[in-house]
Amino acid sequence: MTGNCYRMNSGNIIQISVKPSTPGEHGLPKKPVNSAEIHFGGVDGDYNNYRQEKKKGEPDMAVMLITRGILDDLNKEGWPVGNGDLGENLTISELSYASIEPEQKYRAGTALLQISFKCEPCTYLYSLPYLGEKKGPEFFKTVKGRRGWYARVLEAGVVKTGDQISLEE
Fold first, then answer.
1. Residue 135 in contact with residue 127, Cβ under 8 Å?
2. How far, in Å, CA of 107 to CA of 9, rounded?
3. Own/partner pairs for 50-53, CB < 8 Å, 24+ apart?
4. Per-residue pLDDT of the chain (169 residues; tens, 9 = 90+)
5. Would you state the pLDDT for residue 21?
6. Alpha helix positions (H), 19-163
7. What is the sign, positive or negative, of the torsion defined by CA atoms of 119, 52, 104, 33?
8. Where are the alpha helices (DSSP H) in the chain?
């Protein structure tokens, strides 16, 4: 296996992001933590308003991940998004966003995740401080298909910044 093939199937967790339920606040942006327990209901310390209130705790939406490459692309296009800004729990480097597909299983730290589906943009993105009402709809269109992936938890575990995330065959 070549280095490039390997890198398409694995990467490193460069940030773990969470946001507790805070009355009157949206869940974006999420803030970094050094490590977190991942359980069947999601990432410890994180509360996803949409998943909990509209989707009744949908297990297929327990964890959200995105690759740093997508965030870098958005930055090059003039959108200064950082890790945690789009609601992701895990920001991953060195893994190709295009290589992620539904039903794939990834070992993240000691947790085992299975990709469910792509996360679609939501109006909460309008609350990012640099958007405002005029830029919100444009950004909404820009991130369509690039907001990240939801995953269900097959095995609970712990994830730490710097841990590897790799495709399980």
1. no
2. 11
3. 50/122, 50/124
4. 333 444 468 999 999 999 887 777 666 788 999 999 999 999 999 877 666 666 666 799 999 999 999 999 999 998 888 999 888 999 999 999 999 999 999 999 999 999 999 998 776 666 666 665 567 778 888 888 999 999 999 999 999 999 999 999 8
5. 74
6. 49, 68-76, 132-142
7. positive
8. 3-9, 49, 68-76, 132-142
C-alpha to C-alpha distances, 93 to 74, 138, 154, nearest whole angstrom: 15, 26, 22
Distance of CA 52 to the CA centre of its chain: 16
DSSP 3-state of 102: coil
Closest listed residue to residue 91, CA positions, set 56, 43, 59: 43
Token reading at 20: 């507790």
Helices (H) and strands (E) in the chain, counts: 4, 11
CB under 8 Å to 3, separation ≥6 — which residues? none
